[in-house]
Specification:
Strand content: 15-25%
Shape: globular
Largest sheet: 6 strands, mixed
Oligomer: single chain
Strand order of the largest sheet: 3-4-5-8-10-9
Order of helices and strands: HEHEEEHEEEHEEE
Helix content: 25-40%
Structural class: alpha/beta
Number of strands: 10
Amino acid sequence: GLNESIKELLKAKKKILIIFGNHELKEQITELENKYDNVIDIHKKPFHIGGYTFVGYGGDGFSIHDKKMEKYFSSLSKKLNKASKLITVTHAPPGNTKLDVLPHLGHVCNLSITKGIIDLKPILHLCGHLHENFGKRDRVGKTLIVNPGCDGKIINI
């Protein structure tokens, strides 16, 4: 339902910041970005608007560690405007949080994301992937992390 979802979101006439998950291909997101002016792929491409910087890292969701992600997040800390408030977005939730726990399995997600949050100190981190945790919130340090779920959330920042 990617195309249908985008068409519905476009009705709001707002910027749509997007990353790919485990059901979309990076190429599909690039195609949407090329087709619609309001669709912005933020996978490894910071987007600045109104004093905020959004940074995304899409895909996967099943790795405990991701060295490529860690390298990317590490390179970001040198490039980001410190005056801008940072918001990070990943497909998978950060490991060792309330958002990566599954019944009978415990913590199942990415510790590289947790490390990135600790290093970058965003004001907000958004993630998805685990449907069981839609709507949950937690913190990594001072960073609020939220899985908005398929219905979305309004979050004051």
